[in-house]
């Protein structure tokens, strides 16, 4: 903030601070400050509430330059909302942290934080000090994570035998709330296969660098596929070149590959047709020499960063050396890494051991459009895979890409830690019941905060029920009593009307990591907000 105050000294040398621009500043303190924060944060959380769950709605956002985004992803919605309020921005970051760490659950975490703040407001009205509320929340969060650990089940993630069914079920739960749920089985399988293809089974880790997600508008979502290799948005330079090269040996050139051109300013004087023909013949023979040099190394495909003219293109076709031109820098690097080739910056340095190797390089064509892409499969060096997403328009394709990211993250988390809990609000309700029971045994003021925490946890099943058109309070009350009487923490909201509340039967599965992270992050932010009791800001900012 510019020039908040200056230090001055009075006639006895005692220091004092002069605060500038007091008339332009607004100050909120104490309970008023808390209320203002809570209101701001609640407003943000309320906008996300309707997006939660398999029947949650999507949001359409138009950016200042007219770009339209349609999404169900909490982090994306908040990021694009362009929130101004400083406290509300904390919630934006909250969902971003969840996104960075876990990938899924970004809507739920904000809804939970909003509910916690709403409950805190009521406690503040009853005169309980914010610090006591914050402490009570902290205790409750610990109890909740302990309860999650207790009810968590270990999932038979059998990576060796590639029994991927459980992983697919979990990925399907993640995708069920997204626009692509009409083919979510196929998408889930793609996500699981992509992760398993690159997973390091010993360290149980997944390198995301190796999973590329490419999109191309057109076709239908069912055309989405997994390519075990690299996809580049390019095509062979001549339409008559073969559409596929088997057992490819690739020369990767970042130097010009064309008949020699004088680079510096020089003048070639041609006075007769004879001379012109000679020059042409010279150029052609030089280029043929270059082609021969490439072929001598054993290469059967050339990938160039630069272009070559039609004349050269024709010669390449005649000499049966397929080529790809105008490949961008990052793609060149990707191809080089994947195929184990070396990038050749000078033509004279081309050698056999610098060639990249791949099982097949083939061209993909789409429908009746002239769009083509190059697929490089079975690369020598890399397990890299590409998920290639198709869809009717840019908005769907972009949303599918975001959803795919969620699914990949969830599968990765399961590979890392194969403990799961059941979704549909079941695990939240189980935690709520556990906390409420413990709260009664605590004699200090924190017991109110803990009970408030338990109530806030109910907001997740409540929102799920509301979004699915069920009576929220009745549904939650019913589920809660059944969880206790039947001693079954798997009972959740039957959002898709399958006729059972047991989320195990419905295969609504979430990772333990994600649920724990949601609880911890939401509690942390709410505690932080509760601890602020003084705001000073330019008057137009509050
Ligand atoms: N078939 C289902 N039946 C009941 N509940 C479901 C079902 N599928 C998903 N859910 C629940 O929906 C919630 C997830 O909703 P959603 O995916 O919209 O939000 P999120 O995962 O919190 O955020 P985001 O996906 O935007 O990052 C979870 O609580 C999950 O248990
Ligand atoms: Mg989700």
Features:
542 residues; alpha+beta; GROEL, domain 1; GroEL; 2 domains; 7-stranded mixed sheet; 3-stranded antiparallel sheet; 17 helices; 46% helix; elongated; binds adenosine-5'-triphosphate; binds magnesium ion
Describe it:
- This protein has 542 residues and is α+β, with helices and mostly antiparallel strands.
- The chain folds into two domains: 26-154 and 421-541, GroEL-like equatorial domain (GROEL, domain 1, Orthogonal Bundle); 229-381, GroEL.
- Helix content is 46%, strand content 17%.
- The chain is built from 17 helices and 19 strands.
- It has helices at residues 30-49, 74-80, 86-101, 106-125, 130-151, 165-175, 184-198, 273-296, 310-318, 329-339, 394-416, 426-439, 446-457, 459-467, 472-486, 503-506, 512-530; strands spanning 5-9, 15-19, 25-29, 59-62, 68-71, 153-154, 211-217, 225-227, 229-232, 244-253, 301-304, 323-324, 343-344, 356-365, 372-379, 385-391, 419-422, 509-511, 534-538.
- The strands form six sheets. Strands 9, 10, 11, 12, 13, 14 and 15 form a seven-stranded mixed beta sheet that branches. A three-stranded antiparallel beta sheet has the order 6-17-18.
- Helix 3 crosses helix 4 (106-125), helix 3 packs antiparallel against helix 17 (512-530) and helix 4 (106-125) packs antiparallel against helix 13.
- The structure holds adenosine-5'-triphosphate and magnesium ion.
- Magnesium ion binds at residues 104, 174, 177, 406.
What fraction of the residues are assigned to beta strands by DSSP? 15-25%
Q: Quickly name the level 1 CATH class of the largest domain.
A: Mainly Alpha
Distance between the termini: 15 Å
Number of domains: 2
Mean pLDDT: 86
**CATH architectural group of the largest domain:** Orthogonal Bundle
Number of strands: 19
Low-confidence stretches: none
Look up the CATH topology of the largest domain. GROEL, domain 1
List all distinct small molecules, including ions and cofactors, that are bound in this structure.
adenosine-5'-triphosphate, magnesium ion
Cα Rg? 31 Å
Give the number of helices. 17
- The outline comes out as elongated
- Structural class of the helices, strands and pairings? alpha+beta
The helicity comes to: 40-55%
**Main sheet: strands, sense, barrel:** 7 strands, mixed
Q: Can you tell me the CATH superfamily of the largest domain?
A: GroEL-like equatorial domain
Oligomer: single chain
């Amino acid at each position: 903030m510019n020039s908040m105050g200056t230090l001055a000294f009075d006639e006895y040398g005692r220091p004092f601070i002069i605060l500038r621009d007091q008339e332009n500043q607004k100050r909120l303190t104490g309970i008023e400050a808390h209320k203002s924060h809570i209101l701001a944060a609640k407003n943000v959380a309320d906008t996300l509430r309707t997006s939660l769950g398999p029947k949650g709605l999507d949001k359409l956002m138009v950016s200042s330059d007219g770009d339209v985004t349609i999404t169900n992803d909490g982090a994306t919605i908040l990021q694009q909302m362009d929130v101004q309020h400083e406290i509300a921005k904390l919630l934006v970051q909250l969902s971003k942290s969840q996104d960075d760490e876990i990938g899924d659950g970004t809507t739920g975490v904000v809804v939970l934080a909003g509910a916690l703040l709403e409950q805190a407001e009521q406690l503040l009205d009853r005169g309980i000090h914010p610090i006591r509320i914050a402490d009570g929340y902290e205790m409750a969060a610990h109890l909740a994570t302990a309860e999650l650990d207790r009810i968590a089940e270990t999932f038979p993630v059998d990576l060796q035998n590639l029994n991927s069914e459980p992983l697919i079920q979990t990925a399907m739960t993640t995708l069920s709330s997204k626009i692509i749920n009409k083919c979510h089985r196929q998408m889930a399988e793609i996500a699981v296969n992509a992760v398993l293809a690159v997973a390091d089974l010993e360290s149980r880790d997944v390198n995301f660098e190796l999973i590329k997600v490419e999109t191309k508008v057109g076709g239908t979502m069912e055309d989405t596929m997994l390519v075990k290799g690299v996809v580049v948005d390019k095509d062979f330079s001549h339409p008559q070149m073969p559409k596929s090269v088997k057992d490819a040996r690739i020369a990767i050139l970042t130097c010009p590959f064309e008949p020699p051109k004088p680079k510096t300013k020089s003048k070639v004087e041609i006075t007769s047709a004879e001379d012109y023909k000679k020059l042409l013949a010279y150029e052609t023979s030089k280029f043929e020499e270059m082609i021969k040099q490439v072929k001598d190394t054993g290469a059967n495909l050339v990938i160039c960063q630069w272009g070559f003219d039609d004349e050269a293109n024709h010669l390449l076709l005649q000499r049966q050396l397929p080529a790809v031109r105008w490949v961008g820098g990052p793609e060149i690097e990707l191809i080089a890494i994947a195929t184990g080739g070396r990038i050749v910056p000078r033509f004279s340095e081309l050698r056999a051991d610098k060639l990249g190797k791949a099982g097949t390089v083939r061209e993909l064509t789409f429908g009746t459009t002239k769009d083509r892409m190059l697929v490089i499969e079975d690369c020598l060096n890399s397990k890299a895979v590409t998920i290639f997403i198709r869809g009717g328009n840019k908005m769907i394709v972009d949303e599918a890409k975001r959803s795919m990211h969620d699914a990949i993250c969830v599968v990765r988390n399961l590979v890392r830690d194969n403990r799961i809990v059941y979704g549909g609000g079941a695990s939240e309700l189980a935690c709520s019941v556990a906390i409420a029971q413990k709260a009664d045994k605590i004699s200090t003021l924190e017991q109110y905060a803990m009970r408030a925490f338990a109530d806030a946890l109910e907001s997740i099943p409540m929102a799920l029920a509301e979004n699915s058109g069920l009576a929220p309070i009745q549904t939650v009350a019913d589920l809660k009593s059944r969880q206790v009487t039947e001693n079954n923490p798997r009972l959740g909201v039957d959002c898709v009307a399958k006729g059972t509340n047991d989320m195990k039967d419905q295969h609504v599965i979430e990772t333990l990591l994600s649920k724990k992270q949601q609880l911890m992050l939401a509690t942390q932010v709410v505690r932080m907000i509760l601890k602020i009791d003084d705001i000073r800001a330019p008057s137009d900012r509050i």
